[in-house]
Hints:
Elements (H helix, E strand, L loop, with lengths): L1 H4 L15 E6 L3 H14 L4 E6 L7 H10 L2 E5 L5 H8 L9 H21 L5 E5 L15 E4 L4 E5 L6 H10 L29
Parallel strand pairs: 1-2, 1-4, 2-3, 4-6
Antiparallel strand pairs: 5-6
Helix pairs in contact: 2-6
Amino acid sequence: ESRWLQDVEKDKPPKPPKADIVLVSFSGGKDSTAALGRAVEVYGKDKVVAIYSTIEEFGDDAVSALERRLGVKIIKVKPKYDVYTFWTEVNKVGKIFRFCPYNSYKVDSIRKAEKEFIKQNEGKKIIKILGMRRAEGQRRSNRQWLEFDKSVNLPIYNIILDWTDEDVYNYIKKNKIPLTKAYEQGFYRTSCWACPFKAVDEW
């Protein structure tokens, strides 16, 4: 971990790290879509694999189209609960009336799939790519280009860390990369689409 993180300047993009396999954590949103496209551009489609926790509410048509457009394998997994069960049985009013816990179930399903994938590819140098961006908010403003995911023991490369919203949309449009129709319906963040604590202008 320390060797992976050393000598990296906070505001200077590093040279893309070498890897046998590039594992992209894919949510189906605009940022992870751009990150997946960029990963293919930098490393080549044969080295890139994505793991996606399905968003049944929006359908998976865009994901299938994305597989065809980029020529990559997207491993699809499902969270422990669907959204309806989450709201009606797991996260009832009077407990934690937020959508974040549902996303944690999605993260758990991805992490489980990542561990299985790593086990199947033991001995190969794997790096993990996220669609993390500093412009997304204060909590993410201090994120680094190179990080380390201790939960799966993988180095992380935040490949679009300094991109703006405009950069993301322009990249997707320029490269004709399929994107979920949720954005056409007015959603800004697909991961927070059903949260009652969203800002008023996001409804």
